[in-house]
Design goal:
40% helix, 6-stranded parallel sheet, 208 residues, Rossmann fold, binds magnesium ion
């Protein structure tokens, strides 16, 4: 069986997206982790050929809404919660960087230290490449999937030479419409499901 690397988005996929989680002092009160995400990641990680890593865009750092340290603290807190449930992901990655185009569009100074043209921010594949490197995997030799609640998540999987799975929840109708249109032209590389457990089932059904 091929080795499989699964990237999964954080906000809106594993936990409820409250907008820049960690920016508020009482962020722990806002933390809600979807039970289906726990079940889905667990199903995946129980398979010895599958590695799951979390990859999250954190533009809030460039906006000055929260520090890089706070992002790490939030990630560690979610990781601890997952471990309590017996779920062990193989790595946590975040992109604090945004492009110049993003900066202009969002009213950030282009001299902001987090404005950088690199391939870290999804839909680019820098975080997956780093994860593959850290796990001694070669992207070209393995199957790659990316699970998330936005079009950029789906595109990250495709850009890495793999597939993208959109989790269609109550909050992301706009991204569902976008991805549904993309999926019409790319039925073998784009999947739309209701939750992470179903995303896991699709990935595992492809391994037999
Ligand atoms: Mg998200």
């Amino acid at each position: 069986m091929d080795k499989i690397l699964v990237g999964i988005d954080r906000d809106g996929t594993i936990n409820r997206d409250v907008g820049y989680l960690g920016a508020k002092q009482n962020w722990k009160d806002e933390l809600f982790i979807y039970p289906d995400a726990i079940e889905g990641i667990k199903l995946l990680t129980e398979n010895p050929d599958v590695k799951v890593v979390v990859a999250t865009n954190q533009a809030g750092i460039a906006h000055g809404f929260l520090s890089e340290e706070k992002v790490k603290e939030v990630n560690a807190s979610i990781d601890a919660y997952l471990k309590e449930k017996g779920v062990y992901v193989a790595g946590w990655y975040y992109s604090p960087f945004v492009s110049t185009a993003y900066a202009i569009e969002n009213g950030l100074s282009v001299t902001n230290p987090w404005v950088k043209e690199n391939d870290m921010r999804k839909p680019c594949t820098g975080m997956l490449k780093q994860a593959a490197h850290d796990l001694s995997m070669i992207l070209d030799d393995i199957k790659v999937y990316f699970i998330g609640d936005k079009d950029v998540d789906v595109l990250t999987g495709i850009n890495a030479g793999g597939a993208g799975i959109l989790v269609h929840r109550a909050h992301n109708q706009k991204h569902y419409e976008l991805v549904k249109r993309l999926a019409e032209k790319n039925t073998r590389k784009i999947f739309i499901v209701k939750n992470v457990r179903k995303a896991a089932k699709i990935i595992l059904s492809h391994t037999v």
